[in-house]
Specification:
The protein is of the alpha+beta class and 224 residues long. Helices cover 39% and strands 18% of the residues. The chain is built from 8 helices and 8 strands. It has a two-stranded antiparallel sheet with strand order 1-2. Strands 3-4 form a two-stranded antiparallel sheet. Helix 4 packs antiparallel against helix 6 and helix 6 runs parallel beside helix 8. It is globular.
Length: 224
């Protein structure tokens, strides 16, 4: 949600008919709009509500662009009004037997595996600088207010509670900037006669995290 200055991609009627399972609205229905630009939303010409795109390999992927297949759409609603805000494509783990195209989930895993070798060999100081830049970005008032807006809209929190969630997430990022200390291993000489032990902390590889809904800001940062 942080890359808000990019423009959302639009699609045509053919794409909507082929890839979206949400109900078709009349052409007179105005599209759902929000206070901030949302590059992760894809608008159709005949739908009032946009689809949420997956973020894979550094960009937001639309089903048509990535040749992905979705089995269904999940409604994302405003808890305070119960009105639909957007639809989230239910990314499948398997395509049909006749398809040779990897599913959206398989594409995400493949992209993460591809990034693993270079990221796992990135020096600790470089990782710390990236986290410091990220923390500096989150400190901007306009950024914190925008994140709180989306949390309030999708989770039903008050603005004050949502802002507190944003601050807790920022504190998690700040704590992570001391990653150098956390990545230090251990060593012990003469554990036994002529035996020394050494342990290393190394990246495990591709993993998945599910953030609970009650603190989406803080707990999402913890998963990262």
């Amino acid at each position: 949600m942080l890359a808000t200055r990019l423009r959302s991609i639009r699609s045509n009627l053919v794409t909507a008919a082929a890839f979206s399972t949400q109900p078709i609205d009349s052409n007179d229905s105005p599209p759902q709009r929000f206070k901030y630009d949302a590059p992760w939303l894809h608008y159709y010409t005949n739908h009032k509500h946009p689809d949420v795109m997956n973020f894979i390999n550094g960009s937001f992927q639309h089903p048509n662009d990535a040749n992905m297949k979705f089995s269904d759409n999940i409604e994302c609603s405003d808890p305070s009004t119960n009105k639909v805000l957007s639809y989230i494509p239910e990314s499948s783990s398997k395509q049909d037997d006749a398809s040779t195209t990897p599913s959206s989930l398989e594409q995400a895993i493949s992209a993460a595996k591809g990034a693993y070798p270079s990221w796992s060999s990135t020096p600790v100081q470089t990782r710390q600088r990236l986290l410091l830049e990220y923390a500096h970005f989150l400190h901007k008032k306009e950024v914190r207010e925008e994140i709180a807006y989306w949390i309030t809209l999708e989770n039903g929190k008050t603005m004050g509670d949502a802002m507190g969630d944003v601050w807790r997430g920022l504190e998690v990022v700040e704590a992570a900037t001391r990653v150098g200390n956390d990545m230090m291993g251990d060593s012990l000489q003469n554990l036994s006669s002529g035996l020394d032990t050494i342990s290393y902390r190394v990246p495990l590889g591709v993993c998945a995290g599910i953030a609970p809904f009650n603190f989406p800001g803080e707990l999402t940062e913890r998963k990262h």
